[in-house]
Automatic annotation (TrEMBL):
The chain crosses the membrane at residues 121-144, 156-176, 188-215, 235-256. Residues 43-74 have a biased composition (Basic and acidic residues). InterPro entries: SCAMP. Residues 1-85 are annotated as: Disordered. It comes from Macrostomum lignano. It holds the Pfam family SCAMP. This is Secretory carrier-associated membrane protein.
């Protein structure tokens, strides 16, 4: 009984115990005061500057998208048979031969590349005009040369005519058109073709500016020799030699500038090979020739097999 009472008393004591009695609730420590860091203090001027940059980038993206849509629409129209007629070279209507190419920098070349393509076109024009001036210079050289050098100077004049007739159209077709199509279609193959042929032209210009006889150009060598015979003609030939030299420098600067754009555009030799293989595979003439060759080979094998079987049995 005593034990039970004690247990009951102990239970009563435990039941009356309040652990929260005479105690204060614990409060969490307040967080440290917030201080703005230097990076978070953005002034209104900085916000306005960033807003202007975002708006400028947005306008640039919209402009590029509009140009891309325009080029795609023109390509679709060309595929549908409404392609613009050829406009280059600009020949008169009475000429029996019409223009051979369509050339429009504003419609076919992206805005960021128009300047370099136009620079290449102007260099081609300067090169063509200089070849015409070179003909006048070699004619002057032929006129003022003594009779003992008549054959040499006459050969220089004749070769200058031939060089002008060949190089003017070939330079347009071989390096300017690849440059134009490289930026028009973002073509690695045309980039490589341009680099190869413009290097050949630079070598030709170096030879021309030297003025070696029998090669059809007024240069430093034959110009210096003509100074002793006729001062005016010699000075004229030296001016032509200087122009050839300047044209070499301009072509080197052009190839450097185009190469920088080429390196930044993601073009590569592997991409050029892929474009070449795709172009060959898509060419109907090549496909027909390959199919005809395969058919002929198979027919020859079949006839040979049949002839061998007949002879055996």
């Amino acid at each position: 009984t005593s034990s039970g009472a004690g247990g009951g008393g102990g239970g009563g004591t435990t039941g009356d115990y309040n652990p929260f009695d005479k105690t204060q609730p614990q409060q969490a420590a307040p967080p440290p005061a917030y201080t703005a860091s230097a990076q978070q203090r953005i002034s209104s001027d900085e916000l306005e500057r960033r807003q202007r940059e975002l708006e400028a980038k947005s306008r640039e993206l919209e402009r590029r998208e509009a140009e891309q849509r325009q080029r795609e629409a023109e390509s679709s129209a060309g595929a549908a048979g409404s392609q613009s007629p050829n406009n280059w070279p600009p020949l008169p209507a009475c000429c029996p031969v019409g223009p051979c190419f369509y050339q429009d920098f504003d419609q076919e070349i992206p805005a960021e590349y128009r300047l370099v393509v136009k620079l290449g076109y102007y260099l081609w024009l300067v090169h063509s005009v200089l070849l015409l001036v070179n003909i006048i210079g070699t004619l002057t050289y032929f006129i003022v040369s003594p009779k003992t050098d008549a054959i040499t100077s006459g050969t220089v004049f004749g070769v200058s005519l031939l060089v002008c007739i060949i190089l003017v159209p070939c330079s347009y077709l071989c390096w300017f058109r690849p440059l134009y199509k490289a930026f028009k279609n973002d073509s690695s193959f045309n980039f490589f073709f341009f680099f190869l042929l413009i290097a050949v032209q630079i070598c030709v210009l170096i030879v021309q500016c030297l003025g070696i006889n029998y090669l059809g150009s007024c240069g430093w060598i034959n110009g210096a020799a003509t100074l002793k015979v006729k001062l005016g003609a010699g000075v004229f030939m030296m001016v032509i030699a200087a122009l050839f030299t300047l044209l070499v420098i301009a072509d080197v600067l052009l190839i450097i500038r185009v190469h920088r754009i080429y390196r930044s555009s993601g073009a590569s030799f592997a991409k050029a090979r892929q474009e070449l293989s795709q172009g060959v595979a898509a060419n109907e003439t090549v496909r027909s020739a390959a199919a005809g060759a395969a058919t002929s080979t198979f027919s020859a094998m079949a006839s040979g097999s049949g002839g061998g079987s007949g002879g055996r049995y």
